[in-house]
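Changelog note: in this version the structure field was regenerated for every chain. One regenerated record is shown below for reference.
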Amino acid sequence: MIKNVEELKKNLQGVVEVDGWQKAKVADANKLRKSVIDTIVYESVFNPDNEVKAKTRWLIRELAKTLGCGSASIQGLYDAFGRGVVSGFTVPAVNIRGITYDFARAMFRVAKKHNIGPFVFEIAKSEMGYTNQRPDEYSACVLAAAVKENYSGPVFIQGDHFQFNAKKFAENRQKETDVIRSLIKEAIAAQFYNIDIDSSTLVDLSKPTTEEQQRNNFELAAEMTALIRELEPAGVTISVGGEIGEVGGKNSTPEEFHTYMQGYVKHLTAKRRGAKTISKISVQTGSSHGGVPLPDGTVAQVKIDFNVLKDISKIARKEYGMAGAVQHGASTLPEELFDKFPGVGTAEIHLATGFQNLLYDIFPKEFRETIYDYLRKNMADEKKPDMTDEQFIYKTRKKGFGPFKEQMWNLGKDWFEMANGEIEKRLEFLFLKLNTKNTKSLVDQHVKF
């Protein structure tokens, strides 16, 4: 472990030239990719010295920018969707909960192999907590992976489900709003140039009209969009997403979407006239985050209403110039469903728990059981009376990523060689099913970078 910033500078000699921690120049790109970037990113995550962490994270972002793989907004491509000049594929957005650097490397390798342009690295507000990954760390890991894999082009990093807590909002509206405002500021500073505002948790279906049901949702989404437009860097239009139906709840309708958009546009105009509106809309189609575990720990089959995606995507593009609808909670769905999403015009699809399940399946057995024992001891209050042990483990094992983060990073060369093969195989299957092969030229054409 590097002791201080001076030692860090010594480790960079001959590879990276740092000018007063204001600029960085690559002197030996081959050596940087071969080993030095591995050291830098590890220090950016685990070094106990906060100054070393800050300097390494800054350095990674500077190196990525210098080498042509910096953070970017996907807005230009989504505008092209809205104009009808781009279609036929669905953008995959992957939530990485563990071994983020190596997992991101696998995504870049698959993208390069199949000439894929649009793919998104994302992390939700809740995931930042239980995986112990704040935005600054997450973006550093992703961009370091781009450097390591010699990737060229824009890298799309997204804040997923910047979600209002309905209970806390009811208790103190301003305090909960300030939590989301603070997270937005933190994320933009870490070069998250794609952000999904999830105020769908504030929808109140007990109200008599759709407008009253959606009011808090569209008002808060407009307020957060105005803040994002105020904070976004010069020359960058951050891609903002909205949501009309909380995942796991009632399926969304065109009426709800129209009501949301009319209220949203009105309130955004009042707060910041001429501001760019959302680029996509997340809807509920019958899925749930993580799937529904059965008593034996397997996941129940669900029925997706593809007409919701088709109808709302069509309205989004034709009437509002947006990319279309977004599908959440998809990674545990049956494999035969994935090629249906591009066919109904789904703009983006979020994939999380399926990759978590994959990692747990391939973790060494002894290590996996160590995590499960920790969960049984420390998360026991989350086990409901009617839960089997298998259901409890399935629901809580996402919370093993934070406490065991460093152990996961150090599972060893042999394990990572095996794991990379499994991760790449799954990524390749999904990305090709979503019809993203040979789409890089579209990103080059439409994304300002």
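Spot check on this record: The chain has a mean pLDDT of 94. Residues 71-358+415-446 form a domain with the TIM Barrel fold (CATH 3.20.20.70).
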